[in-house]
Write a structure and sequence with these properties.
This protein is mainly alpha-helical. It has a single domain, classed as Orthogonal Bundle (ABC transporter involved in vitamin B12 uptake, BtuC), CATH 1.10.3470.10. The chain has 15 helices and no strands. It starts with 20 loop residues before the first helix and ends with a helix.
Length: 337
């Protein structure tokens, strides 16, 4: 007891414990995943959802295991891949406006898919178009990695990406405008270019599963990416092999983007929006941003897919563009200020 009669404080004041951002992101992902499984042409109650997952309700189990679960898993994987790829590109170029499609990988995947559909190869197998999309994306990846191996500067890589996007866009436009393309194939091409998760099956899930090991390879690169953000000279002086790190970053980013494009088509703005918002919320430390971007990216794409299915049956690429376009303009306005 103090002289004034008041009880002396027993120690430093206790601060409220903040909820870890990882827990919040994971909780949001679980919530959106449950909503994604429940909504659709046939809405499932929580009891039906649980019974269907346990295969105790045959009707609900058919909807969940054959339609909605593959779609949900691909949405999470695609979101994680595009978000992490965008984060890597922003770290590589030290610019928060960089995105996964900057170096032409998305355009390469789209061109490969368009060529497959235009040549009538889509009827061969369900996975023909995704495999051609992967091949086109890997061709673009090879061109980018070849430049990186030669020690190309970031300016040269950006210029090469612009040229590659223009070239691949010309290929896509040529196929669309060819007189031999039927109306049905034209519709399929436009459907692919808009990006979406309709008619995804477990075969697509196994193809997209390659995203998991590629994403895991990014986790130990958080600290080197932090050092790279200080500048190439500073990172080199602190023991980082900058040239090798940049090759890894470009390679992993392009592979992640290629896999996402192969199973979902062209989906824009995910790699721009999610990493930027996370950086504003938790700071610039990549050791935290890399795992967070994987979880938050999956949650974002699942949420956009839910919005598209419940509001006018919109394609995933349209929803992400409707959200990402104004967000990009806000970033530009914020940068001016």
């Amino acid at each position: 007891m103090s002289a004034s009669g008041r009880a002396a404080p027993s120690g430093p004041p206790k601060r409220a414990t903040a909820v870890p951002p990882y827990l919040l992101a994971f909780a949001l992902l679980l919530l959106l995943a449950a909503v994604s499984l429940a909504v659709g042409d046939v809405r499932l109650s929580p009891a039906q959802l649980w019974a269907g997952l346990l295969r105790q309700d045959e009707f609900a189990a058919t909807i969940l295991w054959h339609i909605r679960l593959p779609r949900l898993i691909i949405a999470m994987l695609v979101g994680a891949a595009l978000s992490a790829s965008g984060l890597v590109m922003q770290a590589y170029f030290r610019n928060s406006l960089a995105s996964p499609g900057l170096l032409g990988v998305s355009a390469g995947g789209a061109a490969g898919a368009v060529v497959a559909i235009g040549c009538g190869l889509a009827a061969i197998s369900l996975l023909t178009v995704p495999f051609f999309a992967m091949a086109g994306a890997l061709v673009a990846t090879g061109a980018v990695i070849s430049l990186a191996r030669r020690g190309a500067s970031t300016e040269r890589l950006l210029l090469a990406g612009v040229a590659l996007n223009a070239l691949l866009g010309a290929v896509t436009s040529y196929v669309l405008s060819a007189h031999t393309i039927t109306y049905e194939r034209n519709a399929q091409i436009l459907f692919w270019l808009l990006g979406g998760l309709e008619d995804r099956t477990w075969e697509h899930v196994w193809m997209a599963a390659a995203i998991v090991p590629a994403a895991c390879l990014l986790l130990p690169l958080g600290r080197p990416m932090d050092l790279l953000s200080l500048g190439a000279t500073e990172a080199q002086s602190l023991g980082v092999d900058v040239r090798r790190l940049r090759r890894w970053l470009i390679g992993l980013s392009t592979v992640l983007t290629a896999l996402a494009t192969a199973v979902a088509g062209t989906v824009g703005f995910v790699g721009l929006i999610v990493p930027h918002i996370l950086r504003l919320l938790v700071g610039p430390e990549h050791r935290r941003l890399v795992p967070l971007s994987l979880v938050a990216g999956g949650a974002f794409v699942v949420g956009c897919d839910v919005i598209g299915r419940t509001v006018g049956d919109l394609r995933l690429g349209i929803v992400t563009s409707l959200i990402g376009g104004p967000f990009f303009l806000w970033l530009l306005r914020r940068g001016e200020r």
